Amino acid sequence: MAGTDLAGKHVEILDTTLRDGAQAEGVSFSINDKFAILDSLVGIGVGDIEAGNPGSNPKDREFFAQYAQRKPNMQNTLLCAFGSTRRKGTAASQDSNLTAMLEADTPVIVVFGKVWDVEVREILRTDLAENLEIIADTVSFFRDNGKRVIFDAEHYFEAWRDNPDYTADCLRSAAKAGAESLVLCDTNGSALPDEIITCVSASVAAYPEVRIGIHCHNDCGLAVANSVLAVQAGATHVQGTFNGIGERCGNASLSAIIGNLQGKMGYRCIPEDRLRLLTPTTRRMADISNLTLPAGEPFVGTSAFSHKAGMHVDAIKKRSSTYEHIDPATIGNDRRFLISEISGRSAVLDVVRRIRPDIDKSSPVVSQVLERMKDMEHRGYQFEGAQASQDLLVCKELGVYQPFFNLEKLRISSEQPMVGEYSAYSYIKILVDGVDEVTAAEGAGPVNAMDRALKKAMEVFYPELVDLRLTDYKVRVINADATASCVRVLIETTDGQDIWTTVGVSTDVLEASWLALVDSIEYKLMLRKLQDDRQTAATGEA
After folding, report:
1. 226 lies in the same domain as 318
2. pLDDT per residue over 495-540, tens digit each?
3. Label partner for 81 (CA 20 to 30 A): which of 31, 48, 190, 351?
4. How many other CB atoms are found less than 10 A from the CB of residue 53?
5. Do 183 and 214 form a contact (C-beta atoms < 8 A)?
6. Cα distance between residue 43 and residue 32, in whole Å
7. Torsion angle, alpha carbons of 424, 468, 382, 378, to 10
8. With the C-alpha atoms ordered 112, 117, 119, 122, is the resulting torsion angle positive or negative?
9. How many domains does the chain have?
10. What is the CATH number of the domain that holds 131?
11. pLDDT tens digits, 303-329
12. Domain stop point among 378, 402, 417
C-alpha cells in the first residue's frame, strides 16, 4: 500500500525486550547484555526503549545507575522506566516504587494501571473511585516532575468486555492527568481481531488529543496481526519485542510488525535507511539473548526467502514476486536457493555460481553436482539446512577444494558419573603442511571435548579461527533401527558476524559430529581462500 494516503504516516515503536522480553522462560540478561541490546535498538532507530522496572529488582536499578554514568549516545531514541501506579492509601510522592522510577532519570515513564473492575476489587482490594484517583495521582506526579508519561491499561480487553464504561473512565482519568499515550494492553493475549478494531477505533475517536497504543501478547497466535490491525484502526504507538520473546507465548514480534507496516504498508516505524538493518538486528538480539532464531521466522529467518522446489526456483528467477512477498534485500535478508532431490538444474547452477560465477548452464559440472547431491541425500544428508556443507561439496566437485589439515589420530574418552564441569576429554594429532600439532582438551561431553580439541589444534595454524563458536547442535534419527540407527548431525557456527550450518551423517553419532565439525571449520577457511584467489586474479588482470 506504499504510495497511498498511508505513506509516510508515523507509528511510534516502543521496544520492551529489556523488560517484558526478560520475563520469557530461559532468558536472563546480564547488565552487559542489556547495554548490547540497547545499542542494537538505538542503531536501528527504535523510538522508545522500555528498559526495566527500577522499583522491582536490583539488576534493573543497577542498569539505570550505569546508564546515568555511561551516558550513551541515544540519538533520537528515548529510554523509558516502567512501573505500576501508586499503592492505595499512599501519596504518590511517598511511594517507593514511584520514587525509584523517578530516580532512574529517564525522559519517559511507562505506568501500568488497573482498568478491569474485577482486578480493582479483587487484586488491589479497593473501590472503583479510589482506583481512578490512583491513576490520576500517579500520572500527575510524573508530569509535575517533567516526565512524559505513557499509560498502559493492563488487561484492557477483559476490562472492556466486563465493564466498558468503567474502563473508559480509567483511560479518561489518565488522559486528563497528562498521559500522552494510552496503550490498550492485551495482557492475556486473548483479544480477537474484531475486538481490536472496535476498541482501537472507539479510543481514537474518544481521545483525539493523545496517542492510542497497542500492546499484544501471542497466546492465541494473533499478536502481530492484532498489532497491525490496531494501526490500521488508528493506533500510532505499538509495543512489542524483537524475536517476540516474553511471558508464556511471548509478545508481538517487532521484526514482523515493522516488516509489515514499513516494508509493505507505507508506514514509518524507524528511519527509512535503517530498514535494511531489520534482519541483522533481530539475529544479533537473538544471539545476545542466547536464543536460536527459528529458521522460518517471518521476514528475518534464514528460511524466510529460501526456495527449494525446482518450479519455484525457475519462477522466482523470472519474476521474484511469484514466490516472494517483499524484496529480501530491503529488510537485510538474502534469497537462498536450496538443493535437494527435487531441485532442478536452475537451482544447482545458482549454487555453483556462488563458487564459480563463470560456469555456464550447459556445463556438465552442473549435472555432476546435482547427481552428487541426490546421491548424498539418498544416504541421509540434507543440504537445504546446511548451506556451508553444500558449498564445500560444490568446491570438491569443481576441483577447487583443498584440505586444510590431515587427521593423524583422534581419541575420545568419556566417563560416568560426571565429576565436576567436564565429563570427557579428547586427544588429537593433526598435520598441516608437514607440521604436526598434538593437543588435548576437556569438554562437557565427548562432542564438546572433540570440538575444543580440534579448534585448539587448528588455531595454531589458523589464528582467524579463534572467534569461531558453536551456537547450535542438533541430532536427527534418519532410519529408526534402535541403537543402530543412522543419525544426521547439524551444527550451527558463528564467527561473530556470519552464521553457517554444516551437516554430517553416520551410524556413529561421534563420526557424524566430527564430519559436521570439520566442515564448519573448513567452510570458514575455504571462504577466505576463494576471496584471496579472486583478489589475486583481479590484481593479475589489472
Report:
1. no
2. 877 889 999 999 999 999 999 999 999 999 998 888 887 777 766 6
3. 190
4. 22
5. yes
6. 16
7. -60
8. positive
9. 2
10. 3.20.20.70
11. 899 887 667 767 887 888 898 999 999
12. 378
